[in-house]
Amino acid sequence: MLLNLEPDFMESSGANGMTFLRAPLDKNADQWGEQQSADRLIALGMALGWVDFPFPRPAWIALPGSVPYVGVRDKKINEDLEKQDEVR
Prior knowledge:
This protein has 88 residues and is an alpha+beta fold. The protein has one domain. The chain contains 2 helices and 3 strands; from the N terminus they run βαββα. The protein has helices at residues 35-47, 74-87; strands at residues 18-19, 51-52, 69-72. The mean pLDDT is 95.
């Protein structure tokens, strides 16, 4: 699901992440859920080391809606999934 977020969330895009406000939308701008669902997805991604906040908390006040930007470490996700496939 993380890999289906908008491209600007992806580390490989060269962007510094994307606002959390856009997290309930997929790469086709279709809404897949609400903010609460996106929050859970991001928390799970952080626990796995696949998601981070590229800007420190004190900077969030200057970001749209004063909410954090979210960065998805898509290269790490793909590496981890490849390793998992090798184990199978």
